[in-house]
User: Fold these one by one.
Assistant:
Number 1:
Amino acid sequence: MKIKLIAALLLLIPTLALGSPDFKSAFGSRDGCFVISDLHTGKIISEYNPKRCQERLSPCSSFKIAAALMAFEKGILKDENQVVKWDGVIRDRAELNRDQTPFMWMSNSAKWVTEWITPQLGLETIQRLLKDFSYGNQDFSGGLKDAWQTTSLKISAHEQMEFVAKIWTGGLPLSPKTMELTKKIIFIKKLGKESEVFGKTGTGCLVGHDCMEHPSPMLGWFVGVLKNGKAEYAFAANATDLIPQGPPAGPRLRETVLDLLKKLKLIR
């Protein structure tokens, strides 16, 4: 009996060692969820709003992670330094109106690069790879350029977390080179002495398509991996605004998640 009790207490130690963020205050005027797991065991170590974390929503620009895997695997993108020539269309952000490398595509969230990639892949290839990835509902019927942007393709936070974990553990039926190149281009920054964060945001309008120009409630995503030496974690978060808010929802949520990771004492 004593041995069983000690074993049970030992299992609780990692959870007890975590901080206790005030998730409700962190999300503020947003209905959101957050889930994080040990990348190697799959064990969930913290979760907020689990019902919402199981709900499938449009991935918005977080889909670019999947698009990058597809593009590298099929040779549309050769490496992280390839230059994708600007199409000449003037868009609302200056950083979009120039040539892009794969890393810039991610960091600038250049939708036009995704729109350049998906027609080259073709619907049949995309649907097959979405199935191989177990990527949400795998429904690309919304069109090669818009299925992932608040139309047909939907995925839950749990599925997003499991998807990014597979990139790090080699759990996808893709070449090691493809997965290594994708990791490189979704690197965000170093935090603390040992921590590195990888991931991708996503922002979508809940109504219409002009919420960036005329503030209105948005959907935001932040999906990725946190590395602390040998310790690695996969996480996913999404949130919908309850009131109109100005800055894009994805970057706002990224800052919220990074703060939560600090409060969970996972950043060193």
Number 2:
Amino acid sequence: MPDDALTAADLADLRALDTPTICNALEIILPARRGIGFTTKPLVCARPDLPPIVGYARTATIRATHPAEGDAKASRQLRLDYYRHVSEGPGPRIVVLEDLDAEPGYGAFWGEVNSNIHKGLGCEGVITNGSIRDIPACAEGFQLLAGRVGPSHAHVHIVEIALTVTVHGMTVRPGDLIHGDQHGAVVIPPEAARHIPATAAQIARRESHIIGASQQPDFSYEKLARTLAEADEIH
């Protein structure tokens, strides 16, 4: 394992935080990334009760409005190459799948079969601007964050694999560390990952001080001003 590789404990620490908290911490650790690196449009979260997913991105693009170009043998081989890509690299993994159609989600790549295949290959979930279906029958514990829900897979097929993709404003390269939950998803730069838990704890202390004061019966504008100043001094 490389010296800078995250351990299982490091990943567990990140999984214990929700995605907005990850974004809050990144704003402090890497201020230049305050306006980039996260989804900026709503995603349908199939399973909001699941804990956040954390993993390394495996990427691909799809289309569904028309059949794949080329013969069936070539399409089958591309699908196998895609599954190989998904299965390789450090784990856990998250698939980030960009739907290239003018109407993303016209056909669903994700359902009962693919969720089970991907879970078996070591994936925690998928983030896509495409559609999902068969939600009650999808693999247990597998999270699906998608652009929409739809009934059919239409002509869905893989176009390219292992490339930079963009899903709802979030640009992702293969191997990027991703954090996602019902709120959306964010890319965690490697140099920030280990600093996030401590920074998040500091933010929580400050927020707790403000919230606690606001819930007191004597709360007022004057007390708010004092409380905000006090919160700034909490480290």
Number 3:
Amino acid sequence: MAANLKNAKKLVDYGFVRSQTVEKASQAFKDPKLSESQKIRYLYSIGFEFGGHVLNNYWLLKPNLLAKIDSYARQNFNQNYVIGIQLRFEFLNQSDIDAFVKCAYNLEATYKEHLGNQIVKWYISSDQSSFIQDLIKIYPGRILSGEGQIGHTAENQNNYERSLFDIELLSRCNETILTGGSTFGFISSIKSQKRPYYVEGQRGTKDCKQLDFSAPARNPSGFSIF
């Protein structure tokens, strides 16, 4: 779709993508001054926006689960500035957590002028429930975590509700820091239509970066998330 703007313009007609997004993407073929990374960014924005439209308009949660999530958000998100942190330990070492914490504090400092009287909280999504409890002890009063049983959905269908809970709430955070290469975290970013920050963990790069479509995050095997 991105490589053929005729198709992309159809998405505008159907209301899936904004006309401004496609117009900007057309610059990738017309403006010789654009760098290769800028061209990719403009083109991939079509798919990113299209994905967000689909997830937010057609991937609908059951009313009882949505009501539970809305209630949690009202109690914990509405008065706070929330930084979402998604930790997939299959892709991380224990020592990598320091990079996430450092990134969260840096984001807090970066967006300080937007905080006002809001208190900064960290919403933690993790595949290890015991680690969330450890963070609650280390950072009292700062950690938020969801409701429901934690675990991979392939192992137990009872884990679906918590997975959906976390994806939805990560998408409502002011900023997110994801485990690089995790499709789970990336879905929440598509829903929020915000480029997340990420740490790649086991790949050896401990820097916290904001996702750039021209240089996407990768999992430990080197595969890109999109």
